[in-house]
Amino acid sequence: MKAVILAAGEGQRLEPLTNRRPKPMVPIANQPLLEYVIEAVSDAGIDEIVLVVGYKRERIQTYFGDGHRWGVDIEYATQGKQLGTGHAVLQAEPAVGDDFLVLNGDRIITAGLVERLVENHAETDGTLMAVTPADDPSEYGVVTLDGDGVSGITEKPRAAAVPSDIVNAGVYAFDQSVFEYIRAIDPGSDGERALTAAIEAMIGDRPVRAVRYRGLWVDVSYLWDVTAVTAQVLDAMDDPVQNGTVEAGAHVADNVRIGSGTRVGSNATIRRGTALGNNVTVGANAVLSNVVAFDDATIHDGAVLRDCVVAENATVGPNSTSPGGPADVIVDGTYFEDVDLGAVVGDNASVGAGVVLDEGTVIGDGARVGDGVTVSGRVPPDAEVRGG
Amino acid sequence: MCGIIGYVGDTSPISVVATGLKNLEYRGYDSAGVALNDGAIEVYKQQGEIDDLQLPESTDAKLGIGHTRWSTHGEPTDENAHPHTDCEGRIAVVHNGIIENYDSLQDELSDHEFTSETDTEVIPHLLEEVYVGDDLVGAVQAVLDRLEGSYAFAVTAVGHDGMVAARMDSPLVVGHGEDGNFLASDVTAFLEHTREVSYVEDGDVVSASADGITVYGDEGVVDRAVRTVDWEAEAAEKGGYDHYMLKEIHEQPRSLRQTLSGRVDAVGGDVDLELDMPEQYLQSVEEVQVVACGTSYHAGLYAQQLIEELADVRVSVKVASEYEFTGGRDPWRTLVVAVTQSGETADTLSAMREAARAGARTMAVTNTVGSTAAREADDAIYIRAGPEIGVAATKTFAAQVTTLSLLSVYLGRERGMLAADDASELLENARGLPGAIQQILDVEDEIREVAEEYVDGEAFFFVGRKLGCPVALEGALKLKEISYAHAEGFAAGELKHGTLALVTPNTPVLAVLTEGANPKATLNNVKEVESRGAPVIGISSYEGAEKFLDATFDVPELGRLEPLLANVYLQLFAYHVAKIMGRSIDKPRNLAKSVTVE
Prior knowledge:
The structure holds two protein chains of two kinds.
Chain A: E1 2-7, E2 27-28, E3 31-32, H1 33-43, E4 48-53, H2 57-64, E5 73-78, H3 84-91, E6 99-104, E7 107-108, H4 111-123, E8 127-133, E9 141-146, E10 149-155, E11 166-175, H5 177-184, H6 195-205, E12 208-212, E13 218-219, H7 223-236, E14 245-246, E15 251-252, E16 257-258, E17 263-264, E18 269-270, E19 275-276, E20 281-282, E21 287-289, E22 292-293, E23 298-299, E24 304-306, E25 309-310, E26 315-316, E27 321-322, E28 326-331, E29 334-340, E30 343-345, E31 350-351, E32 356-357, E33 361-363, E34 368-369, E35 374-375, E36 378-379, E37 384-385
Parallel strand pairs in A: 1-4, 1-6, 4-5, 8-12, 14-17, 15-18, 16-19, 17-20, 18-21, 19-22, 20-23, 21-24, 22-25, 23-26, 24-27, 25-30, 26-31, 30-33, 31-34, 32-35, 33-36, 34-37
Antiparallel strand pairs in A: 2-3, 6-11, 7-13, 8-11, 9-10, 28-29
Helix pairs in contact in A: 1-4, 3-6, 5-6
Chain B: E1 2-9, H1 13-23, E2 31-37, E3 41-47, E4 63-69, E5 84-85, E6 91-99, H2 102-108, H3 122-130, H4 136-144, E7 149-157, E8 163-168, E9 173-176, E10 180-184, E11 196-199, E12 205-208, E13 213-217, E14 220-222, E15 227-228, H5 244-250, H6 252-260, E16 264-265, E17 270-271, H7 279-284, E18 287-292, H8 294-311, E19 314-319, E20 334-340, H9 346-358, E21 361-366, H10 372-376, E22 379-382, H11 395-414, H12 420-441, H13 444-454, E23 460-464, H14 468-483, E24 487-491, E25 509-513, H15 519-530, E26 536-540, E27 551-554, H16 562-580
């Protein structure tokens, strides 16, 4: 049985991190989200994967290649336009056999979930949907159950109207009939076909069974999830890998992951929940707590950062600080209160010396912040911020 | 230039040999063939690509040898395809290299019936004269004395259970597998089956059976160390890309992180290249000679300027096929650096040997661990780019230049000519390469649009100064190789001394206008060609240049390494022009990946 993994989406709520990579390539503890999915699938004994790619697909292809490193065989199907998850699954039609799994490429799951689906599928045919309890069900497709059968899916209901806390985990087993249901969806004005719409249509005709799952299931929806989930994953890791070079006098906590070619300067302090990618530079005396630095990032001498993301090839100048702490952040017009976000510095952006990044600051990719400025709120990509 | 593979073992040799050939396709692809031995020899061969080769569905044979060809002697035809056999069809041979005395050998074998125009065919006929019983090893040993030239060949014969191979000046490796044993021109041929390999030396004769491998030297059995290769077999897959070339262009950030990993101390201004070269020797060196071909030669030109500047020593760069250790230099004070991706480039090897004969110390800068260049040179540095399959070199150029820039710092520091601070600056820049290249890859769509606009140009001229000059040469070479468009690279100041006569509104000019490439002066040359109506595409970090350019690509700040970034734009430009023109990008006509003939 092959696994189809949907990895063509953009993930706009994670802007600016998704301006240059698709959401499945956002790294959590030095591994792209998609890698957790591929590892779960591979550990569950499935060795043939169809990756549906689209937005910035080169990033995915370059990282995963033919899947050899993960002991799987990966073939690629391209979704030219983002026309919904159902449309994405259609792109995999020529590549799959009678039965197959479908998984979202941007949720962290365990092999146990995939195994349960495979076992259940062996016992009974037809459509299976993994469901899991969620803290914030209104963010997902809330599932109503009738015994083991799925009787309805409500996409992102208003908080007041949430029928249960059981949500669609985004992992399914299908047979070929799903393609007909997807094709039968009326795409509507935006031309999109959602996979859940096909499942809803299916519910009347044939059984759709739920597979209950209570293990690790993590979505990374917002920028502050990148730091929080990284800390969570690092805490769960048994002795994370620390490559690179740590200079004399630097202190690195145990639950910190460090990539290869990375250098931590003398007397720097790297606290819990921090992940430094490959070829990262951390200067002398820097203090980092729960900081996620992507590959090629540079954090200069004396910088003090908490709950921050420093994206690929971004630079934070000497003695710049982002003290972190609860922040109020607006994403896509929605106001979020008291989230733990210091600052996000987008890809290739540079922050000068002695800059203060207020809590919740988001610097767009390619933006430049001059020396000595205090910044808050959102700085658009490629903008230039100078001191007055 | 060709590729050979042989397999003997428990499973059917058909798919092992066929996929092995596919993995060797970069060595040549104008004809292919396979011989199977199941007590009788069956040969399947034809002109054309490996995918078109007709092979049987199944076989009882436990042994097969295969060949993919890039013609040197005799056109690509069915007859000239390997394997070649003796008169009776009892002995089959696949061969990479050139038998230089094949003419005279053919005369001596006048009672034999030759069916091809190849040099190779003399080998099975010579073997036919001496092969008796099952002593194929003895027969091969007897024949070697009569062969002049270069070869790696593999033989299978009726009456002998295993296969026998020999090597002289052409690459040959053996693989020790669980379900059988392998012979090939390159480890990529069998990497999916085993990573345990031994490299065969010149003059060795190898006997491989299902049970084991025995290597015979001049005086009986010799021991050739078994090493584990850590390359990913991913090598052979395009991973979702249309072409290996594009895949390899996109791999540059990752492969450069490998190139740099563990070698750079940017704070202390030091590099660790794991070289064991006495400081006194390095201080006494009066000249560094770089020998290389093609793209590697351009990397050498880039290195020339860096080494002269940072290590304060004279550097000359020689096209390897033109190299001679000529007068006026002291071999004891000359360091000869051979730059070759494969480590098997025949021209470069012969230049390196000439230098060694003259008494100079030699160093190989190569991508291939255990290659001939790495083994023969006094010192070797690996560029760690990972396997490159596309014929047009891309990531290996970036890795060569990066490695050579580290070498320039090493030489400067060891010779006491480079301050730690100045070293730090270049090393910081080197560490900035992966991120800066990714930044360029992210705007690939813009380059594709410009390629679409200018694809119909009658000719393309690439200009640059200083470090921009080798990049202009390399940009033109890439475009020529894969698009077949007429392209030339120049020192920008040379335009007005002749080539300007060719410039018209239909000849786009691509200019390197970055740090390290004297952009101010080059901008004057841009104005020269613009006044003749030529459109100009600028790869630029020079402020104010845009208004003189028809299209501008921004280069991130990276000091002396900015021209190397500019090259990434030129790679993508060449790729997209060739793609729009519908060219065979990974396998351009008449070219092969590593050229093991002189």
